[in-house]
Amino acid sequence: MADISSKGTNWLRGDIKFKLFQRQPNLKDIAIMSRQLATLIGAGLPALRAVKIVSEQSENELLTESLSRVAAGLERGESMSIAMSKEPKIYPALMIGMVRAGETGGFVDRALDSVSSTLERDHHLRGTIKSAMSYPVAILILAFLAVTVMLIWIVPIFAGMFASLHSALPLPTQILVSLSPVAAWGAPIIIIGGAFFANWYRQNKNLPIIRQYRDGIVSRTPVFGKLVAKISVARFARNLSNMVNSGVPILQAINIVAGTAGNWPMEQALLRVEEAVRKGVPLAIPMKQEKIFPHMVTQMVAVGEDSGTLSTMLMNIADFYDEEVKTTTDQLTSLIEPIMVAFIGIVVGSMVISLYLPIFDIYNHIK
């Protein structure tokens, strides 16, 4: 009875945690954690003690719990890479592969430091893209709200005025008057449906069929397609450079990089490249056969293979395309802003003009 009472008291005290409301660790969290581990292990601390210290310092609850499980694995005699591989939703495959290479070569601290640098760059890149996209998304939401408010509250006032005129309305005005009663129940359906779709997409966005169609459509988009291709090339080159530089075998490195590409066409191209390299073909040759790799990239990879500086060449490629992405994003942002302002002006202005067309007709008849 005492045990039951104790359990009930714990439950009443809120010992049950609602994981639904816990924030998933992002790239920045993992990068900071990797840097802390690299510093502690580099200072001579055992891996187990380093993991326990970092788990106590982490501000993300899910990451703290995960690190505690990693520490438990280390206590059981598992390696850090094996313990992390049991937490695939927390630790990227790139990180696990780099740690495994560091354990084999005796440089776990340098491997973790390299992972941290890579994830920090990736986080910064994603932040740049999100900041570029936040403005057009905000404008679209504002346009939707403006149209909804006008259809629900403004148009009915004019519709009552037009009904007393007993005359035919211009086509644009007829369309607005017809849409007004639909908006009253249609807008909530769109909002609720959009929320459900966003939740469903967040849970299923990594399914192969979803990624295949989504990335295929994005890659064919006139402006964003080229931007995504540059991002994919930069990520591929940097990750492969870090893995090769850390001593990861080339086949294993290509396979891991393919899984972390974040782009379906790039992932499939890398898997085909891996198959060719497995047969003894130099890396640059199958890359030339894939359209997703620019000619400059394949040429630099070929030079790197011939001169034994593949890691350096790949890092130069990554730096070049990082700058290309930044330049393209800045240009895209400066181009999108006036376009979106003009878009919302045209939408709202067209509605206002449509509402005043019958009044203009009446004035012309009177005149």
Put the structure in a nutshell.
The protein is an all-alpha fold. It is built from 15 helices and no strands. Mean pLDDT is 84; it is low at 1-20.
The coarse silhouette is elongated
Q: In CATH terms, what is the fold-level topology of the largest domain?
A: Receptor-associated Protein
* Average pLDDT reading: 84
Rg, Å, rounded? 28 Å
Give the strand tally.
0
Individual helix count: 15
Ends distance: 93 Å
What does this structure look like?
The chain is mostly helical and 367 residues long. It has two domains: 15-91, Type II secretion system (T2SS), domain F (Receptor-associated Protein); 123-367, Receptor-associated Protein (Up-down Bundle), CATH 1.20.81. Helix content is 81%, strand content 0%. It has 15 helices and no strands. Helix 10 packs antiparallel against helix 11 (250-259) and helix 10 runs antiparallel to helix 15 (310-366). The longest helix has 57 residues, at 310-366.
Write the layout of secondary structure elements.
Elements (H helix, E strand, L loop, with lengths): L1 H11 L14 H16 L4 H11 L3 H15 L4 H6 L7 H13 L2 H56 L7 H34 L3 H12 L4 H22 L4 H10 L4 H15 L5 H5 L6 H13 L2 H57 L1
Helix pairs in contact: 2-3, 2-7, 3-4, 6-7, 7-8, 7-10, 7-15, 10-11, 10-15, 11-12, 14-15
